[in-house]
Amino acid sequence: MEVVILPDAATIGGTAADAVAALLDRKPDAVLGLATGSSPLAIYDELAARCAAGRISFRQARAFTLDEYVGLPADHPERYRNVIDTVFVSRVDFGPDTVLGPDGLATDIPAACAAYEDAIRAAGGVDLQIVGIGTDGHIAFNEPGSSLASRTRIKTLTRQTRLDNARFFGDDLDAVPTHCLTQGLATIMAARHVILVALGRSKAEAVHHLVEGAVSAMWPATILQHHPHVTVLLDDAAAQRLQLIDYYRETYRSKPDWQGF
Fold first, then answer.
1. In this structure, is residue 184 part of a structural domain?
2. What EC number(s) are associated with this protein in UniProt (predicted)?
């Protein structure tokens, strides 16, 4: 697990964008995994700027999103497919129908989840997956207690997750959906490279468990300790609970030409 502590969200965004650019240089038809939420926004801003400047292209690439609320109308602004279109997909040059997400309006949820897993496999799997982390250690919507072997499925959201997301619904907890479709932990683990971004003091406890704690279903992100290629990008606030924080800082400083991606 590569742990990199950087000064701010913009620097993190540029560092992660460098990894995406390097991947697309060597594999223009790469498959990306896209997360919503606030953590990856700086990445998407940087990628959009580079695309507008002609420095990167997504024309041959494909992408899969991590999760989706169940039951939100197709035109709801907080439906994750609409969110990812707004913050990223519409700002770059993906081809038509090359970005897919779980179908939160499906009448047959298990069949829709199975079809989504099939689509990821048919694309050859995800080359680079971007994820954030919840204050309770969830990734995607794999809440505490999730099976470490889980695949795409329906989940009930915890009250904490709904409280965290209420800001997107006018701080109205009742407006936040109670269920979602999410890629499972085993689905995420199948990606060839995972970049996890965490920003702010509220993520510090979860980051401590992620990097230095025991692997546990109560802190679902800890399963990433078993992944062969994970890069954790943190700001100072998110890194503050790490017991080995000085080691992580020194490891990065001692490699100015660091090419861990």
1. yes
2. 3.5.99.6
Q: Both tokens of residue 73?
A: 């109308």
Assess whether pLDDT exceeds 50 at residue 64: yes
Burial letters for 15-44: b for 16+ Cβ neighbours within 10 Å, e otherwise?
bbbebbbebbeeeeebbbbbbbbebbbbbb
218, amino acid identity: M
**What is the total count of domains within the chain?**
1
Here the tokens at position 100 are 């897919």
Residue 69 to residue 249: CA distance in whole angstroms:
37
- Which pLDDT score, from 0 to 100, does residue 164 have? 86
Considering the domain boundaries, does residue 261 fall inside one? no
CA distance 99 to 165: 24
Known catalytic residues are 67, 136, 138, 143
**CA atoms in the 13 A half-sphere facing the CB of 228:** 4
CATH code (residue 79):
3.40.50.1360
Under DSSP, the state recorded for 191 is S
Q: Is the pTM of this model over 0.90?
A: yes
Give the DSSP H/E element, type plus range, for residue 96.
none
The whole-angstrom separation of Cα 243 and Cα 239 is 9
Residue 257: pLDDT band (50, 70, 90) is very low
Q: Which domain holds residue 83?
A: 1-252
pLDDT band at 255 (very low <50, low <70, confident <90, very high): low
pLDDT 10s digits, 22-45: 999 999 999 999 999 899 999 999
